[in-house]
Amino acid sequence: MWNPSLYGRYADERARPFFELVGRIGAENPRTVVDLGCGTGELTVQLAQRWPDADLSGVDSSPEMLSKTPPGARFDVLDARAWKPAEPVDVIVSNALLQWIPEHRELITRWMAEDLAPGGWLAFQVPGNFDFPSHVLIRDLCQSAAWRDELGDLVRHAPVGDPGEYLDLLGGTEVDAWETTYQHVLQGEDAVLTWVRATALRPMLGRLTPDRQAQFLAEAGRLLGEAYPRRPYGTPFPFRRIFVVARKES
């Protein structure tokens, strides 16, 4: 289950890639814009400022995340894999969703071929930090003797590609693919644990009893605290992200 309050703890750091992604979309007056994996919808409605005349909608599979959506767009509880517009749309945005979908490469090609209008834009962003300590330490912990029976099958190894892979995947269209490593400075105690607890740790915590959750979080917090020590000004937290903006031929 997604926790909107916990996810929003570092809202500014999570929002920055969204705006940098959308800023590279060249659409001027799209009729229809959809945000797939829109979360709470707070970023979705920002698209109305960019395209005030567009029919704007958001899709997310979590009822919890969509429980308090702001006005300014239409929202639907739906898995992005099941989304199918009545007619092709002009802009598809997907921010930090596709890493959760193993078959997302096939999904991307379907969106481009079937669900995007001629001349339309597809823009997506995914985390690219699966080989950083924040993920490696959690994988190692899940595969340790104390946890492998309960959590070993939840380990994921780099479910996303690099910019070059997505460039090849969408070859033949106009593609802008790049990566950025942000140097976040997180405030608060156990900052990195708080960050990953809202996202990467969700599958693990969802499987454990409350007592085992507390044990797991204590161990994970210790490991992450050693890897990302808190400084007087906060906790430095490098975070790599992959961006792709593609335009379909007219």
UniProtKB/TrEMBL annotation:
Keywords: Methyltransferase, Transferase. It comes from the Bacteria. The keyword Methyltransferase applies. Coiled coil: none annotated. InterPro entries: SAM-dependent_MTases_sf (IPR029063), Trans_acon_MeTrfase_C (IPR023149). GO terms for biological process: methylation. CDD domains: AdoMet_MTases. GO terms for molecular function: trans-aconitate 2-methyltransferase activity. Gene3D superfamilies: S-adenosyl-L-methionine-dependent methyltransferases, Vaccinia Virus protein VP39. NCBIfam families: PRK14103.1 (NF010703). PANTHER family: TRANS-ACONITATE 2-METHYLTRANSFERASE (PTHR43861:SF1), TRANS-ACONITATE 2-METHYLTRANSFERASE-RELATED (PTHR43861). This is Putative trans-aconitate methyltransferase. It comes from Acrocarpospora macrocephala.
